[in-house]
Design brief:
Layout (H helix, E strand, L loop, with lengths): L2 E7 L6 H7 L1 E4 L2 E4 L2 E4 L6 H11 L4 E3 L3 H13 L2 E7 L7 H12 L4 E5 L5 H15 L4 H11 L3 E6 L4 H5 L5 H9 L2 E8 L2 E9 L2 H14 L4 E10 L3 H11 L7 E6 L2 H7 L4 E7 L1
Parallel strand pairs: 1-2, 1-6, 6-7, 11-12
Antiparallel strand pairs: 3-4, 3-5, 8-9, 8-13, 9-10, 11-13
Helix pairs in contact: 3-4, 5-6, 9-10
């Protein structure tokens, strides 16, 4: 059986330690400030991006990874006789999946497998952790893909947004909704369902009200959550992570709770202070 290589993109929001441990290669997306172009997580960090936003007074535009980037990395591992599984940001959120598909088509290889996560951030990261587990169990690439496709609809990603400015300026919220939300101090819960973002419950007050809604939901579902992994992913909100961790770590039957930082692409759409709890249902 051929060796199996996992490849993702910079939106998976796994920590550098997890990426190294799982031996995942990352294809970065682009983050553009008019004439300046950066690679997400390579020559631009989330903290630096926020500094540029304040300095320039505008949000960056993000762009999909190119087919050429995928062609290069796919070709390298095919030459080393690997089977390749790419799993990254969902096809409805970015053209990155289409770029990976184009590269596969150019290479005309049956050893490249593409899995549409129908998710974003560490929602796809959870699937990568599962893929590594299946790989370690000795499954071949096609079996791993089949198992992942069964899990995709069971991933649950939800975030509470601290500021509506980024959603509004990024074109995902109209001006009136942004104004009313700010005036009423609404903290919306954004969920990923069926490959798209939807608005769930709306907390009113400070962000802790929204965080408590996230915690309540996960506690209500605790017996239905897959026990392997749970992610708490945030955009520069470590104190909020500590609060969530202290509330759930000894109350949930979860083997591994990971803190991960949202990269530039995800953060550019949700803003500083955003935090989410992500898990897989049994």
């Amino acid at each position: 059986m051929k060796k199996i290589k996992l490849i993702s993109d910079s939106t998976c929001d796994l920590s550098s330690d997890l990426i190294k441990k799982l031996d995942i290669d990352i294809v970065p997306l682009y983050v553009n400030f008019v004439e300046e172009s950066y690679f997400d997580g390579v020559n631009l960090t989330t903290a630096k991006m926020y500094e540029l936003v304040k300095k320039k007074g505008l949000l960056p535009k993000t762009a999909a990874a190119s087919p050429g980037a995928f062609y290069e990395i796919f070709e390298r591992y095919l030459k080393e006789e690997y089977q390749i599984i790419y799993l990254g940001i969902g096809s409805k959120f970015s053209a990155t999946f289409l770029s990976a598909h184009s590269a596969k088509k150019m290479l005309e290889s049956d050893d490249i497998f593409l899995v549409d996560s129908e998710n974003l951030s560490s929602g796809s990261g959870l699937l990568l952790l599962k893929a590594d587990k299946f790989r370690q169990e000795g499954n071949d690439a096609q079996t791993i893909v089949n198992k992942l496709l069964e899990i995709v609809p069971k991933v649950r990603s939800q975030f509470v947004i601290d500021t509506l400015d980024y959603l509004y300026k990024g074109g995902r919220l109209n001006a009136l909704s942004a104004f009313m939300g700010t005036m009423l101090k609404i903290k919306p819960i954004i969920k990923v369902r069926d490959g798209v973002m939807v608005v769930g419950k709306k907390a009113r007050g400070n962000i802790n009200q929204g965080i408590n809604l996230l915690i309540k939901e996960v506690m209500d579902l605790k017996e239905e959550i897959d026990s392997d992994f749970l992610m708490v992913t945030h955009s520069m909100a470590h104190k909020s992570y500590e609060y969530i961790y202290n509330e759930i770590h000894d109350k949930l039957p979860i083997k591994h709770i990971y803190e991960t930082d949202a990269g530039c692409v995800i953060s550019s759409h949700c803003g500083e202070g955003t935090i989410g709890i992500l898990y897989i249902l049994k």
